[in-house]
Amino acid sequence: MKLKMIQYRIFVVFFLLMQNVVFSQVVLPYRVVMERKDGNSIIFNMQRTRIKGKEVWTILNASERLKVDAIKRNKDSFFVEMPFFDSRMRLSLQKDNSFTGTWFKGTALADIEMPVKATPNQSYRFKAINGNATRKANGRFDASFVAIDGKVSHAVAEFLQTGNRVTGTFLHPDGDYRFLEGIITGDSLMLSCFDGSHAYYFGAKILPNGNMVNGLFVAGATYKQSWSAIPNATVALVEDDVMVYVKPGQNRLNFRYPDLDSVLVSNADERFKNKVVVIQLMGSWCPNCMDETAFLSKYYKENKSRGVEVIGLSYEYTTDFRRSEKLLRKFQQRYQVEYPILNTGVTSGDSLRTEKTLPQLTPIKAFPTTLFIGKDGTIKSIHPGFAGPATGIHYVEFCAAFEKTISDLLKE
Asked: How far apart are CA 353 and CA 335, in angstroms?
């Protein structure tokens, strides 16, 4: 009898422990709407997880899962710090578990502000208001964007359609628009993404021949462009407008800037001598720089023993060192960056940014831009832009080309 009582008590304790494990984690899907004054809302999805009282949110864009865990709660008020960029939300929790509040994004001038509403138990992104898809958006497209001032820019769009669902991205010479997700309903295409910096919506009509017309692209609170696209399996990016070159007879760099701990670092320091050095021109405001930082951090950890070094040179929104340091540390900490990230003290918008920092080069036109330095200390090649994970095969090709460049330089 006593043994049975002990067994029963053990069972009760185990049951209560299991109940705590099961019910201490609650996952809720949310549909988040960022409201623009012109009515063109930007929509994305997220999951809210509470693990033993700790809030962890996950922003969903196609195959990307962006973890957000810097969340402070005071009763029904939430302060959410995005893991990258000068980006945050102030939200109020309502009785139905919805959130209302504001998204703030820092810029070189005033913060951008957008009203936000997050509705629980809604896992769809866009409503199929016109029923199932009657058009296709699979493949590669030659896209043209027209700004309000009439300036035209070109991009390559690549989409994958499964039923009504569409994922993909736009590739530009200086980078990509990262992970886009949406639907086709009837003949209407709708795509969006949010990563803390990118807050994008794309809409268009698809004609029976596959052409995309009457396109609308909105970003943030006010930016707007029109766009169109034509199916073209062989269209290629034209990089002439973003290329950077070494000036004649000036193939050696000479810089010295503080790292995030205010320690001065120079490319002439002993640790870089007789090594292949990759120099990343970047900024904490740049989503493609985020993707490149993730790649470079992993590559450096796996290859530094081969005689490879990396230096990040940042060009921030302002010359405020402390503000820049805080934002750059987000990259450093999230990706456990072991190579030095240096603050040039020159803004990304400075028309003389190249002359002030790397006068050996023609003007820097794209962020990120990557420089490859040989073991003899001279510039061997320059690559503008970055094709990130959202570009699929292009990212795979980039990784292979990067490795070949490093291997060839190590052999010199």
From this structure: 27
**What number does CATH give the domain 26-120?**
2.40.128
Query: 248: burial class by Cβ within 10 Å (0-12, 13-18, 19+)?
Result: exposed
Q: Are 234 and 226 in contact (CB under 8 A)?
A: no
Checking if the pLDDT of 369 tops 80, the result is: yes
Domain boundaries, the chain: 26-120, 139-231, 242-411
CATH code assigned to 242-411: 3.40.30.10
Asked if the bond preceding 258 is cis, omega within 30° of 0, the reply is no
Dig out the tokens for 93 from the structure. Answer: 């929790």
Q: Cα torsion at 35, 36, 38, 42 (round to 10°)?
A: -70
User: For a pLDDT cut of 90, what percent of the chain falls above it?
Assistant: 89
Collapsing DSSP to helix, strand or coil, 292 comes out as helix
**What is the pLDDT, as a whole number, of residue 20?**
41
User: What pTM value is reported for the model?
Assistant: 0.90
Longest dimension (CA), the chain: 94
* Spatial separation of the C-alpha atoms in residues 366 and 243, rounded to whole Å: 8
By DSSP bridging, strand 341-347 and strand 308-316 are: parallel
In whole angstroms, give the CA distance from residue 227 to residue 154: 10
Residue that the structure tokens 């736009």 belong to: 170
Which whole-number Å values give the CA distances from 386 to 78, 240, 244, 277, 294, in the listed order? Answer: 34, 15, 14, 18, 12
Q: Which fold has domain 139-231?
A: Lipocalin (2.40.128)
Does the fold of domain 242-411 match that of domain 26-120?
no
Please name which of 50, 32, 22 lies closest in space to residue 120, comparing C-alpha atoms: 32
Strands of the sheet with 369-373, listed across from one edge: 341-347, 308-316, 276-282, 369-373, 379-384
Q: Tokens standing for 49?
A: 């997880």
Whose CA is closest to 252, among 342, 365, 359?
359
**What is the C-alpha to C-alpha distance for residues 157 and 169, in angstroms, rounded to an integer?**
6
Q: How many residues are given for the chain?
A: 412
Instruction: Reduce the DSSP state of residue 204 to 3 states and report it.
Output: strand
